[in-house]
From TrEMBL:
<feature type="transmembrane region" description="Helical">
    <location>
        <begin position="867"/>
        <end position="887"/>
    </location>
</feature>
<protein>
    <submittedName>
        <fullName>Putative permease</fullName>
    </submittedName>
</protein>
<keyword id="KW-0812">Transmembrane</keyword>
<feature type="domain" description="MacB-like periplasmic core">
    <location>
        <begin position="93"/>
        <end position="314"/>
    </location>
</feature>
<feature type="domain" description="ABC3 transporter permease C-terminal">
    <location>
        <begin position="784"/>
        <end position="897"/>
    </location>
</feature>
<keyword id="KW-1003">Cell membrane</keyword>
<feature type="domain" description="ABC3 transporter permease C-terminal">
    <location>
        <begin position="359"/>
        <end position="476"/>
    </location>
</feature>
<keyword id="KW-0472">Membrane</keyword>
<dbReference type="Pfam" id="PF12704">
    <property type="entry name" value="MacB_PCD"/>
</dbReference>
<feature type="transmembrane region" description="Helical">
    <location>
        <begin position="89"/>
        <end position="111"/>
    </location>
</feature>
<feature type="transmembrane region" description="Helical">
    <location>
        <begin position="407"/>
        <end position="429"/>
    </location>
</feature>
<dbReference type="GO" id="GO:0022857">
    <property type="term" value="F:transmembrane transporter activity"/>
</dbReference>
<feature type="domain" description="MacB-like periplasmic core">
    <location>
        <begin position="593"/>
        <end position="717"/>
    </location>
</feature>
<dbReference type="InterPro" id="IPR017800">
    <property type="entry name" value="ADOP"/>
</dbReference>
<feature type="transmembrane region" description="Helical">
    <location>
        <begin position="784"/>
        <end position="805"/>
    </location>
</feature>
<dbReference type="InterPro" id="IPR025857">
    <property type="entry name" value="MacB_PCD"/>
</dbReference>
<comment type="similarity">
    <text>Belongs to the ABC-4 integral membrane protein family.</text>
</comment>
Length: 904
């Protein structure tokens, strides 16, 4: 019998079987009546000879097949009836499992979106990223000049193709069309980059694939749109190929549209546009002025990254001989190769995600243990029902299947609720996740996550219900039916099992609470780290700068200086300043590498990689930067004055490692700002050394930093486009509430330039909070996990003790009848709870000691095995256990001995 026949003709077959059996019995009875037997006796003899009708039906249906499916449906219907009969018990189990499944689902959704998602490229496992020089903080690779890339293409045999993208800054770019302008990511790429990635446009031929990778000047105005840019700006116009669009007021011809889901260079859903790289004269040199590019290679099948790196180092040893400057030659000799994964996830981010996934899994395990305890209690309460079904012929396997199906129905219900809770949790923490993770986190679980959740549902059902089902099904039938009381049939082994599960809950909960306590101590310590600048009453606006409007004008004179004067005259504004990126901000980052020869003859020159920022002279009034030596910028540091810079102590020590006094760097010439204009070929002189302050993250040591006076960065400066034209933060100190000042600031920005009106506003206090990054995210999530674990732990202990009291009601009555005081009975219950709590806390302290290694990377100012934290969480858990035990103990003390003995 096919499943199709079983689904749609099973009732007809059952009716036919019933009719056939009735006809057989009728014929047999008629035959006996013909031989002279009475009607009733003939019918009885026919039935006796036929045998058990129900058994015949079962045997016949088994011959048809799919009986197991019919029994599964019967068990599912019975489980639903049980849930309807006991809604409180069902809500407790479903809620318990939903908490654990929600935490695991939410964390796995984040991990899947950030760490496990596959790149939308063909054979992405063969793609590698190649760089020169030492990798800097965050895993960024330093860029490679074209002559090195050309040599690699000619001499390396481990690669199918080598492509590259423009490593310089193009500023903010705006795609214009259909009466609107949308900010886009505009990336210059080699013509073979799409083919190297193994992706073709969904519309159009794409960029012309030149062997050398560069485009001709005639092809420079051709672009490929991302699917998002195509739909957002042009409404998905399928005739877009060949049309002219404008980017930054410049005309470009569309030659292709990439497929949906494609991204490069990072995982972003924002509109993207790609154009070809055009080779310039500086690309033919091996100097510090040569443009650098990010390089992606595709390995040949069967080639490992290790063998490719070995060949690369051999070839690069000859390539580096083309560098005249010894420092750049040393830099070029250090080549690196790693698996390409889009935007790189930092090590601390990876550790945070994995640690939180482990914590959510622990919470899920606690939920399963709690659900197991509830189902054990439920099984004990249903012993007579289960024994009765066994007495009527149900096998142990059949009973265990029915009870396990009940657990599966509960787990499925918990999964549905858990998915809803997970989606809600992701939406609540979306801003925090966006701050610390490089990739966008999906708002809904992917197919991979849903498949994993299906497995998690089955596993939850197996862990929480299979064991109780097995124990309930193996109970002896006759003793249970013979005993008439409610309080019989529960063995010591079952009591020990339930007690052991509660101990496990307490131990795992303490481990979570300890990790949460350590992170809260870390956040407390970070809040008390001296920042080195003021943060109170400061509003920060991240300006959205239309780069193309400032390309041929001096933005300082035409936009920034008038804007500052306008803002400083607003009511309640004490000071206002501009900076490419405020301290602890993450909107912009630019690094320079400077060389300094050692003063000692036996030491070589050293290279310093430093953060490079531009700031207005009034910025010190806003933040109150402390000066270690020298002075900060003033109103005289203009474009007509000699160029000056301010550095921090970390830069001074790195630039002059032989000098102990950082102040001796004052007066040194370290940087050339411009080759043209009033500052032509002049070296910028150090005029001051800033005191130590927190730059990128609270608690992170200061890195070398150079600041240049904003008025001295003119349009003829080499740094103009990459500083003023890309990023600028407006910082305003005011005594008025932000809600009153921000509308006035937005109006001032709109008056300066209409595009600036859409700038994002925040406060410096919020920036400081966001800078805590993975520590704050981990602390907040662990607070939820630990709180949920504590709640489940208390519920589990309360449930066990309440059940024990109900089972020992007769014993309590006997004790009272023999003269026991109510305090003695309460003490009995409290002592039993105390044994469980002490055992759980002792085991939990061991787990907490081991789990300290998981959170070690997020701690600041506290040891992973901090005794005060462990002692505090142990006391909290003991108090919670005492509270959970008090109510059952009070209930035991109020037992009426007469009623208790009468019920037996």
């Amino acid at each position: 019998m096919s499943v199709w026949q079983w689904l749609f003709r099973s009732e007809d077959r059952k009716s036919d079987l019933d009719a056939e059996i009735e006809a057989h019995l009728a014929l047999a009875a008629a035959d006996r009546r013909e031989r002279g037997m009475g009607r009733d006796r003939a019918h009885a003899e026919a039935q006796r000879e036929f045998g058990n009708v129900a058994l015949v039906k079962d045997v016949t249906r088994e011959a048809w097949g799919w009986v197991w499916l019919e029994r599964l449906l019967q068990d599912a219907k019975y489980a639903l009836r049980q849930i309807r009969r006991s809604p409180g018990f069902a809500a407790a189990v479903i809620g318990t499992l939903a908490l654990g499944i929600a935490a695991t689902a939410a964390m796995f959704t984040v991990v899947d979106g950030v760490l496990l998602s596959h790149l939308p490229y063909k054979h992405a496992d063969r793609l590698v990223q190649i760089g020169e020089g030492q990798t800097v903080e965050g895993g960024d690779y330093l860029y490679v000049p074209y002559l090195d890339i050309e040599a690699w293409r000619e001499q390396l045999h481990s690669f199918e193709a080598i492509a590259f993208d423009g490593g310089g800054f193009d500023g903010r770019n705006f795609l214009q069309g259909n009466g609107t302008a949308v900010q886009i990511g505009f990336t210059r790429i080699s013509a073979n980059l799409f083919s190297t990635l193994g992706v073709s446009p969904q519309l159009g031929p794409g960029l012309p694939n030149k062997p050398e990778g560069f485009a001709k000047t005639s092809d420079a105005q051709e672009v490929v749109l991302s699917d998002s840019a195509w739909r957002t700006v042009f409404g998905g116009d399928r005739n877009i190929v060949g049309k002219t669009v404008h980017i930054n007021d410049e005309p470009y011809t569309v030659v292709g549209v990439m497929p949906r889901g494609f991204f490069f260079p990072d995982r972003s859903d924002d509109p993207q546009v790609w154009g070809p790289i055009v080779m310039g004269d500086k690309d033919q040199g091996h100097t510090g002025d040569s443009p650098g590019y990010g390089v992606i290679g595709r390995l040949k099948p069967g080639v490992t990254r290790a063998s490719a790196l070995a060949e690369l180092k051999t070839v690069q040893a000859h390539v580096a001989m083309g560098y005249v400057d010894p420092e750049w030659r040393k830099h070029a000799l250090q080549v690196n190769l790693r698996k390409y994964s889009g935007e790189q996830v930092r090590t601390d981010q990876r550790h945070a995600l994995l640690a939180l996934t482990a914590a959510s899994s622990l919470l899920w395990l606690i939920a399963c243990v709690n659900a197991t305890n509830l189902l054990l209690a439920r099984g004990s309460a249903r012993q007579r029902e289960i024994a009765m079904r066994g007495a009527l012929g149900a096998s142990r396997r059949r009973l265990m299947q029915q009870l396990t199906i009940e657990g599966l129905v509960l787990s499925i219900s918990a999964t549905v609720l858990g998915i809803g809770l997970a989606v809600g949790a992701i939406s609540i923490f979306h801003r925090a996740l966006k701050q610390v993770l490089p990739s966008p986190v999906p708002s809904w679980p992917s197919v991979t996550v849903l498949v994993a959740l299906s497995g998690l549902t089955i596993l939850s059902a197996v862990l929480s219900s299979a064991w109780p089902s097995w124990m309930a099904a193996r109970l002896p039938i006759e003793p249970v039916l013979r005993q008439g009381g409610q309080q019989s049939g529960v063995s010591r082994a079952q009591h020990r099992l339930r007690g052991g599960l509660v101990i496990a809950e307490i131990a795992m909960s303490l481990a979570l609470l300890a990790s949460c306590g350590l992170l809260l101590r870390t956040i407390y310590a970070l809040h008390h780290v001296p920042l080195g600048f003021r943060t109170d009453h400061i509003i920060v606006a991240n300006l959205e700068i239309p780069t193309y409007r400032f390309a041929k004008t001096n933005a300082t004179a035409t936009i920034y200086q008038p804007l500052l004067e306008r803002v400083q005259h607003l009511p309640g504004v004490d000071a206002a300043g501009l900076m490419t990126d405020v301290p602890l901000g993450h909107t912009f980052s630019m690094r320079l590498m400077l060389s300094q020869k050692s003063t000692k003859a036996d030491q070589k020159s050293n290279a310093v990689v430093a953060e490079f920022k531009a700031a207005s002279p009034s910025l010190q009034r806003v933040f109150g930067f402390p000066m270690f030596k020298g002075r900060y910028f003033n109103a005289q540091d203009t474009s007509s004055a000699d160029p000056v810079v301010v550095v921090n102590r970390a830069f001074a020590h790195a630039f002059m490692p032989d000098e102990q006094d950082a102040g001796k760097i004052i007066g040194k010439d370290i940087l050339q700002l411009s080759k043209d204009g009033p500052q032509k070929n002049k070296q910028a002189r150090v005029i001051g050394v800033l005191g130590d302050f927190q730059q990128s993250a609270v608690g992170t040591p200061s890195r070398p930093e150079i600041q240049v006076s904003l008025p001295q960065i003119t349009s003829d400066s080499g740094f103009y486009t990459v500083l003023e034209g890309i990023a600028m933060d407006l910082a305003v100190r005011t005594q008025r509430p932000p809600s009153e000042v921000i509308p006035e600031l937005r109006a001032a920005l709109k008056q300066a330039s209409p595009e600036l009106a859409g700038s994002n506003f925040t406060t410096m206090d919020q920036i400081v909070e966001d800078s805590y990054g993975s520590q704050m995210l981990a602390a907040r999530l662990l607070e939820i996990f630990a709180g949920s674990a504590l709640l489940l732990c208390v519920a589990g202990l309360y449930g066990l003790l309440a059940y024990v009291v109900s089972q020992r009601t007769r014993e309590m009555g006997v004790r009272f009848a023999l003269g026991a005081a109510r305090g003695d009975v309460m003490g009995l219950v409290m002592r039993q709870a105390g044994v469980l709590v002490v055992a759980g806390v002792s085991l939990g302290l061991v787990l907490a000691f081991l789990s300290g290694k998981l959170v070690r990377n997020f701690l600041y100012g506290v040891s992973p095995h901090d005794g005060w934290t462990l002692a505090t969480v142990a006391i909290v858990l003991m108090l919670a256990g005492a509270l959970a035990a008090y109510l059952p103990a009070l209930r035991a003390a109020r037992v009426d001995p007469v009623e208790a003995l009468r019920t037996e």
